[in-house]
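U., I forgot to send this yesterday:
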Amino acid sequence: MPRFSIIVPSHGVTGRLPEALDSVLSQSFGDFELIPVHDTPTDAPAAEVTAGHQARDSRVTPVHSPPSAGLAAARRTGLHTATGTYVLFLDGDDTLAPGALATLDARLRETDDPDVLHFEHERVPWWEGPATNPAALLVPKTPSGAFHPEEVPRLTGVQLPAWSAAYRRAFLAEHELTFNDGDFTDVSFGGLTMLAATRVAVLRTVLVRHLVRRQGSRMALPEAEHLELLDQVDLLLTRAAELCTPARRTGPLFEQLFALVLKTAARPRRLGSRRRDFFRRASILYRRHRPAGYRAPGGSVGVQHRLLAAGSYPAFQALRGANRAVSGSLARLPRPRGLRTRLRYARALRRPLDENLAVYCAYWGRGYACSPAAIHAKAAELAPHIRSVFLVEPEAVASVPEGVEYAVIGSHRAWELLARATYLVNNANFAEGVVKRPGSVHVQTQHGTPLKKMGVDQSTYPVVAAATGSFTKLLGRVDRWDYNLSSNRHSTEVWERAFPGSYEQLEYGYPRNDVYLTATADDVARIRRELGVPEGRTAVLYAPTHRDHHTGFETGLDLDAFCRAAGDDVVVLLRAHYFYDEGRALGDGRVIDVTGHRSSEDVCLAADALITDYSSIMFDYANLDRPIVVFADDWEVYRETRGVYFDLLAAPPGPVARSAEELARVFADGSYAGPASTAARARFRSRFCQFDDGRAAERVVRRVLLGEPPEAIPPLTPLAERVPAPAAAPLVRS
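Result:
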């Protein structure tokens, strides 16, 4: 049997799960089994992560536990699978410190394999600030070897998380020790193991690094079942009485448990309307389990003990009222400019939400575009009772299609609509001053699959961070999101890390990409005529991305020279990043500037092949299953200044050209569309086109606007069964 079984529940932490698993697999001590526990065999995002690790290391044994069963059930499932001498638990966003298992094994052998070995851990802030080591204070001075818990009565186990100890598996099985259901399962598990243990040891070394989530511990949130804490307290103190535990041990156990209870009782926002019920039941348990001769602490804490024993909630509330800290208080939101507008917005916020009003916006008001436009169009078809209004900047009004209701951003009418709308859909973010009203639903559609670093992940790249502005304000906007769309598992993981929040991920695909599966040959021909693509020519879309270290648009490529070298039948559709949408005249007639065209989807449909550098357009274009060439002449500079999530050159969607000469050659000799290009594109599509099957907008409308349950949402069409819109020109070159 292996020395260690390491159990890692993964629900809700997919974005950090690879780091957790890698921290185990990279240990110098290799005698272990790694047991990730995820939601279902096939549906959970974590399944792909664990499957990849299992494929490369036979020590990985994934098991499945439904998310509805909670953390306790996931750990129980892992325990049933474990075969190691010792069991360790990691959360999915914890990591083992380098050398942790070797250090732990040495200490276990030194102490002759105790029942439980407690070690220290670090709590690492999710954003900034020093790491803390709370276990250093909780693990008191102990004997150098193994000892009986009676020798150190203040080491009760209830103050330490399950992932701050190693447990001998035979000991757990002998005493039938496992995790009880509920949010506070660590409290009873830690206490019960210490009540049953006869040999305990301590290791004063940090072995686990715990990432503190931006949302904080679930136990501190209002929706947690805080009355379950009292269930765990009752269970643990009842068990201590059954074992006739001496008073020198039950005193510290009682005090530590009720310190948790009083901490919860003093935060009424956690308890809501149940705070009196919580206090009343806690008072009953306090009197029932108070050890004989127990003396409460001194000072204000002792007063709280006496008030709890007396069941006097009003007095307790008055005592704590002055010191109550309201955690997570919101900074004052910037208000709309102009006194009249502020007054109108404030007045509108006092009116009830309009349950049949949806407000859309794309690219900060640049026009009717992207996924918000696709959802808007589908809502008109499936939810015609919803009034849909698009917000645009004044200069974009002329581009709004006929029949689409719109409002100008910043106008009185726009602010009134934002105040009253139940549904708000955006591919960027609404203005700072927009208030997230109870009952309103914000949908963040995103506008691309991330290759470059996004959100708070940009903070370590100075050029990008300076352009991003306040990350605090960014996260304030993220806190408004109720739903966030994803087109592949890679995006799901990145959004979780880059935009930490409490929103729900909808792995529905990007609505803007639906057209790549629904457009016809006639649509493609029409768009090419509108753009001026000569009949019979091969249209190559050149779409370079924005570079944060440049001050303006640079093509990065001599397009005239490329056309001459690539072949007489090639024309280039130039689409600069939307930051540079002013018109320009380039080339000798074989270069068509489509930067100002409203729809990037139309431009992609018109193109027979794509050249890009690091733009996210490659992920969308891959849905068409047409050739893609990566022009990576400055990859190293871009990677260092902007930051990327994976090595594009190691897993490209097609040929990679590192110079203009190489780029022209792959078109001149036809290799841009050859077998190697097709194979690379197939691998790329399987990874990044997972959820884009042409029905993303329908899924969003049904789930969000029509309120249909998840099980009623149309299932994904397998990638092999999807039929992309046909290209106009043949790909075989002479």
